[in-house]
Amino acid sequence: MSVKTLAHAGRFAILPSLFAVFVAIRILSKGSSADRVFPEWWTYLILATLMILERLYTYKHRVSQRPLLTRDIISTLVNTLITGAVTGFILYPVLAWIPEYFLGRRLVFAASGQLGPFWLQFATILLAVSFFRYWMHRFQHKNEFLWKLHSYHHSVTDLQARNTFVSHPVDFALRNVMVFIILGIIGFDNVALLVAIPVVQVYGIFSHCGADMRSGWLNYVFVTPEVHRWHHSLVVPEGHKYSVNYGVEFSFWDVLFGTYHPPQKQGVLQPPEKLGHPGGMPDEPNYLRLLLVPLGLYGIFSRPWRKATSN
Predict the structure, then answer these.
(1) What angle do CA 120, 126, 131 make, to 5 degrees?
(2) Are 99 and 106 in contact (CB under 8 A)?
(3) Which residues of 153-181 are buried (b: 16+ CB within 10 A; e: fewer)?
(4) What's the rounded Cα separation, in Å, for the pair 127 and 221?
């Protein structure tokens, strides 16, 4: 078998294989000394691996992101190291108190054993997280204020691993943090959470891989880069008002609810012509603007900074 044939076969096999490897790494390393020193080390390992893939399997429509490197680094650090902790600190007491105050008990169940056997809890977590994130994602495109927050994620002109976490912290927390806080309050079995959560977290990162990968029939189950590029299309496909392919990890929700867009030619999923903000907003390199403009605070905070730097 030639090297060219092996490389072509690798385009189909490499992402599923790496996905299984990274899920296993995350499950086995949970609670390790590496976790205690730097809890998000595995996220950065995934990002580094995907960046190498992007070099090995160069996407022919790749767009240079060099001028945005500083913005990408800052946003990645904020959303991986700060957003989750701050969201948990604010939301956990509120979400835990509401059902007790209004229902007189904790949310749903008090003990994990009441939620069923391990396999059922595992499946429930996978479906609940992906279902929640699908509909939250759709709402973020439909609601005017949430779209202001989310639109910065859609201003990227190319999907690359390094811009996976380019998102306003509030936007990121609503879609990627809140559901896990709710699951923790409900009281699912710790082992079920340990196994299920890496599955949805890892694949959410994989969808932004900028390498020229192929996924075949897996496109109908998982949100692959091929599928997710259409969600970031500069032109919203005809027949859809806001966007398509809203799933974060599983694309079967899009298939079920009529938002899946898989244009094919001779059995091969075709890519969109260009990626970018459908309203024409340019990719914002200034992280401070990304953070403050949607909240109407940029002028307040930037004015003292401009005065200080001009003196």
Answers:
(1) 120
(2) yes
(3) bbbbbbbbbbbbbbbbbbbbbbbbbbbbb
(4) 12
Packed helices 178-186 and 83-103: angle between N→C axes, nearest 10 degrees: 40
Question: Which of 135, 179, 173 lies closest to 153, judged by CA?
Answer: 173
| Residue from 214, 290, 209, 206 nearest 248 by CA | 206
Instruction: Please state the pTM of the whole predicted model.
Output: 0.88
DSSP structure class, residue 261: -
Domain ranges for the chain: 3-310
Question: Helix 169-176 crosses helix 69-81 at what angle (to 10 degrees)?
Answer: 50
Q: Please give the Cα distance from 190 to 193 (Å, whole number).
A: 5
What is the full per-residue pLDDT of the chain (311 aa) written as tens digits?
A: 554 555 556 677 888 889 999 999 999 888 888 888 888 999 999 999 999 999 989 998 899 888 999 999 999 999 999 999 999 999 888 777 766 666 555 555 555 556 788 889 999 999 999 999 999 999 999 999 999 999 999 999 999 999 999 999 999 999 999 999 888 888 788 888 888 888 888 888 999 999 988 888 888 999 999 999 999 999 999 999 899 999 999 999 999 999 999 888 877 788 998 999 998 899 999 999 999 998 888 776 655 545 544 44
Reading the block at residue 67, the tokens are 């001028």
* Crossing angle of helices 178-186 and 169-176, rounded to 10°: 40
User: In 104-158, which ranges are continuous DSSP H helix?
Assistant: 118-142, 144-150
> Which residues make Cβ contacts (< 8 Å) with residue 181, sequence separation at least 6?
87, 88, 91, 92, 95
| d(C-alpha 44, C-alpha 73), whole Å | 11
Residue whose entry in the numeric block shows the structure tokens 């109908």: 220
